[in-house]
Write a structure and sequence with these properties.
Elements: H1 2-24, H2 27-50, H3 57-70
């Protein structure tokens, strides 16, 4: 199972990067988009912890929206 998960993760990253390159027509912009997602995620986790918010459906929907804006 771990090896298939690694293959799936790599395939997902490859497809995402190819789509970003296709849409933006610039490798630099696509690379910035790929770098921004983990930064946004860790910033979101840190801010949620810092403000002591509980996990709820609204918080998860907000994160999905934030991830969409980061792309």
């Amino acid at each position: 199972a771990p090896s298939s998960l690694g293959v799936l993760w790599s395939l997902t990253r490859l497809i995402t990067s190819e789509l970003l390159i296709f849409v933006s027509r610039c490798v630099t912009v696509a690379a910035l988009g790929m770098i921004a997602r983990p930064v946004v995620f860790f910033g979101w986790v840190w801010l949620r912890w810092f403000l002591a918010y509980n996990m709820s459906v609204v918080v998860v929907i907000g994160f999905i929206a934030l991830a969409g804006l980061a792309a």
